[in-house]
Amino acid sequence: MTNSQSSVRVSIADRNPETTGAEIAASLTPPPQFTDASFESYRPDPAFASQQEAVELLSAFAGSWGVTKSSGGFFGRKKKTPDVKPGVYLDGGFGVGKTHLLAALWHAAPGPRKYFGTFIEYTALVGALGYANAVESLRGSTLLCIDEFELDDPGDTMMITRLLTELVASGTRIAATSNTPPNALGEGRFAAADFLREIHAMSGHFTTLRIDGEDYRRRSMEGHAEAITPAEYDARLEGATSSGLTVTDDSFDTVITHLAGVHPSRYIKLLAGVGAIGLRDVHELSSQTEALRLVAFIDRVYDAQIPIHATGVPLDEVFGGDMLSGGYRKKYLRAMSRMIALTRGS
User: For residue 78, what are the CA distances in angstroms to 69, 86, 142, 242?
Assistant: First the structure.
């Protein structure tokens, strides 16, 4: 390997990014792949009517903003704005375009203060700023978009309920996506029955729509994530570096270990400037904690659309034991779908 090549081959384990609350708030915009997302560019599957219904619901939600106009001159009576709930909640499987629609709503909403982030980014914002300062930071925004809405512990349940209630009371509208209906959030992960009042109070903010459909990433491909030989791995990384890309080159264990020391809200910074990811000796995971960290990491890799080259076990086979039958099943299935796409160039 030449010096020029080695200068763009790096290790994820050598990166220890820090982030501030102000940086998290500034980054709350749609991922790059959804920069131009619109209702018009969404392609509903005609076999599933709920996808077109979602477009119509969100278009109406976006259209309910705006200044009320007078009828009858300056002192005329203002037209009544549509009576809508302050939030919309898109429940559905992975790969049906929920994030595209959420980003399209964000683009359609009036600015300049509107936010788009994953659930984990909002919890990180609260952690960095403190609850009161986080509320003040978000107060006055027109729209708060929450992608991948999940409640994995009682503390998050209480915090997000309070946050949404305060923001809705101040006039902010909420839009969220999840693989779980709002009344079922937390099931299989903690004693959700102990927090039903909070969960039901939160769900009352939303008009909920179930979006059915097939995973669009699997429509164009079958099989598993691509696992390549060591020789193919070296050739691909060599080709990527010779073209000037910054490429990471790590063993799977090295990355899994390093993720344990980095807060998930900072995973995106691990990927700054990276054009391709190399993972050697991928194997099945037995720890659910490690598996969930990998899911969060893959979500950020997918947002950044960075291809993965990997040896060993196909990445979609790393979730071992009874992980796929537990409370995090949908998270794992989403990650598997994304890893297939990232290793197969789709």
Answer: 6, 21, 21, 64
The mean pLDDT of the chain is 83
Report cis status (omega within 30 of 0) of the bond before 264: no
Report which of 286, 266, 198, 185 is spatially closest to residue 18, judged by C-alpha positions: 266
CA distances from 320 to 23, 77, 93, 106 (A): 36, 64, 21, 37
User: Is residue 91 within 8 Å of residue 178, measured between CB atoms?
Assistant: yes
Instruction: Name the token pair of 245.
Output: 């890309």
Give the global pTM.
Answer: 0.78
CA atoms in the 13 A half-sphere facing the CB of 45: 14
8 Å CB contact between 182 and 203: yes
- Cβ contacts of 231 within 8 Å, gap of 6 or more: none
CA dist., res. 266 & res. 244, Å (int): 25
pLDDT bucket at 217, cuts 50 / 70 / 90: low
Q: Which distant-in-sequence residues (6+ apart) come within 8 Å of 9 by Cβ?
A: 1, 237, 241, 246, 247, 248, 249
Question: What domains can you pick out in the chain, each with its CATH number?
Answer: 3-17+217-344 (3.40.50), 31-213 (3.40.50.300)
Residue 203 pLDDT greater than 80, yes or no: no
A 10 A CB-CB count for 296 gives: 18
pLDDT value, residue 120: 85
In the sheet that 143-147 helps form, which strands lie side by side, from edge to edge? 114-118, 143-147, 173-178, 87-92, 206-211
What is the mean pLDDT of the segment spanning 107-136? 92
Query: Distance (Å, rounded) from C-alpha 291 to C-alpha 47?
Result: 34
Beta strand 206-211 pairing with 87-92: parallel
Cα–Cα distances (Å) from 176 to 5, 121, 153, in that order, read: 43, 13, 18
Of 263 and 294, more confident: 294
User: Which residue type occupies 155?
Assistant: G
